[in-house]
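Q: Could you fold this chain for me?
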Amino acid sequence: MNLEPIPECIRAITEPAGVEVWDLPVWRMSDEWVHRLRETWGPVRYFASTVIERDGRIVLIRDAEKESVGGWTIPGGSVELGEDIAAAAVREAKEECGLDVVVTRPLAVGATAAVGPTAGRIDYYDVIFEARVLGGVLGAADPREVVEVRWASRQDAESLVAQHGFDNAHPFDRSLFRCIREFFEKRG
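A: Sure. Below is the predicted structure, expressed as structure tokens.
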């Protein structure tokens, strides 16, 4: 996928922090689906995710609708139109795992595109932040969306990925778990 030009809002996050943009495989979709996405989101769609760490463990959620990696992922979701990306990460953490967090730094950005045979493309960026807990109570806020929430060590996270298969995981899921692995490696 050609990452140029990277949107200014992504460059403003990545360049000052020296954060890498990971070029992920393109999603092949129907023209109808690409048109629908473009009508809702425009030519670019943003996601914000958080690696919430405390005492050497991170928050993992099990998404009710996600099939890849057994549904396990980190808190995150769509950035609403006009919403700041870091603010979206904070909002999604509260909505998905009940914790009030503050974003401390960006960790990585996954970039891909949904491409239709003739409809062109819509670019996707998932900004992954590190976050610190300020308060709240860990738990699934909406069980229709999140069925389980837990604190997980590096071994727990790797075990879940191995148990549910990684080779067939969605590119965004692979980038999230790559980020988790790198996060733990830098922590020692």
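A (continued): The longest helix spans residues 171-187.
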